[in-house]
Amino acid sequence: xxxxxxxxxxxxxxxxxxxxxxxxxxxxxxxxxxxxxxxxxxxxxxxxxxxxxxxxxxxxxxxxxxxxxxxxxxxxxxxxxxxxxxxxxxxxxxxxxxxxxxxxxxxxxxxxxxxxxxxxxxxxxxxxxxxxxxxxxxxxxxxxxxxxxxxxxxxxxxxxxxxxxxxxxxxxxxxxxxxxxxxxxxxxxxxxxxxxxxxxxxxxxxxxxxxxxxxxxxxxxxxxxxxxxxxxxxxxxxxxxxxxxxxxxxxxxxxxxxxxxxxxxxxxxxx
Amino acid sequence: xxxxxxxxxxxxxxxxxxxxxxxxxxxxxxxxxxxxxxxxxxxxxxxxxxxxxxxxxxxxxxxxxxxxxxxxxxxxxxxxxxxxxxxxxxxxxxxxxxxxxxxxxxxxxxxxxxxxxxxxxxxxxxxxxxxxxxxxxxxxxxxxxxxxxxxxxxxxxxxxxxxxxxxxxxxxxxxxxxxxxxxxxxxxxxxxxxxxxxxxxxxxxxxxxxxxxxxxxxxxxxxxxxxxxxxxxxxxxxxxxxxxxxxxxxxxxxxxxxxxxxxxxxxxxxxxxxxxxxxxxxxx
Lengths: 271, 284
Description:
The complex is a heterodimer.
Chain A lengths: L9 H10 L6 H9 L4 E3 L11 E8 L2 E8 L5 H6 L7 H16 L4 E7 L6 H5 L2 H13 L5 E10 H5 L6 E5 L3 E3 L3 H9 L5 H8 L3 H6 L5 E3 L7 H19 L3 H13 L3 H5 L1
Parallel strand pairs in A: 3-4, 4-5, 5-6, 5-7, 6-8
Antiparallel strand pairs in A: 1-2, 2-3
Chain B lengths: L7 H7 L16 E3 L6 E3 H6 L15 H8 L6 E3 L14 H11 L4 E8 L2 E8 L10 H17 L3 E7 L7 H20 L4 E9 L1 H4 L8 E4 L10 H8 L10 H6 L5 E2 L2 H14 L6
Parallel strand pairs in B: 5-6, 6-7, 7-8, 8-9
Antiparallel strand pairs in B: 1-2, 3-4, 4-5
Helix pairs in contact in B: 5-6
């Protein structure tokens, strides 16, 4: 795939960058932002513990937060274990359990999204992949605690959205977020997955496109592993945003979150 | 070259019920072949039987107009937001042509309105497979959202009949966001203590399954409908193996615990009326 890039399709270069196996994953972000304060929590209390979702409690300076990430894994062994960051329903249910727990303690939630999509498989369908995602969307919309989502790589369709019903959604400068993969889009529309670069352009899926469309609030500079200053400023930014939203009365927090999504597609429809 | 092509129509006619053998010549559109049992059915018979095969009970797809006629009391459907039509917001190549082709077959991917179902005032949304396979674009999401907001304000129950290939990729991320938007409107309706019933029809997949289709207080499905998040072809490609028989049918998801009942089309309206009344909704 990597050979198909060229300068005519900058969006597809972003797609490849977002999938780059050497880039930082959710676990890296958690380590760099929270260090030893992170305590991992496991299981959906219904079926199993989905390792594609890494979740737990941490301290952001003095503020306790719930952190939920979709983890692709950093080497082949980890990637197999993490199912390449493709969660099953039990992963989304683990996330929802911990999100509801955060609400109970009015603890802010930080979601780190990096997935090519929810896993398409027999077990996932048998256990209600669609229902699990739908429930997350519904419950997160009225969650009475601040939620912030950062896309740190790929944002693949419903499997990403299931952790992105938030007060604000940010994207790393080389991350993408789309309704379908460019390969999938090209093979369905043009019967040729080699036209993925064209599809990537048409889908408007880069962080810059999404910012222009008003779907995300902020674009974050791409961090490097040893870039401590960058992580420090990201931590500050996250804390300021969570604190600001924590200060809002519930009704206003929820109204703003509702309006954030309510406006998308509304004006276009009224024209 | 198929040398037997000229005898084919005769053979097919002979293969069907005896009563049809005396028919000397019938124009093609008068017949419809059941995709499940291959029986040739008189179109009028099939339509009179609520678009269900008289031979094997296969439920044919219905247009939104036909389904509204099936469920809403005669003349009661007061359509809302019919003026909203899909546009090529992202300038996606080829989408304008697709839209103009689709709009010749159906008005939109969903039609919403207020009606009475056996006398019970209800907000009814019906998706239409004839419009780009009921894919969810911004207009779909907007119309469903408005329907739920109206129902919440007027304290009315909502019935949504789904049929969808998923989110509409030609509207990119904006169509994905409709999953969150509609879910928000469903949640507010639910928090207001109001009833929402979904009727899943063939096929209900992708972003619609992963949002409002699975969010009903009561979820019904027509027999043998495809109900899935990832479609069978996607899964076969990932797994590189054949899928079990009857995988992702209404009966399958019922057995797995994700819907409440499989309801025959002929029983659909009385079932909805009964459930609405059980929740205290009624005349006036």
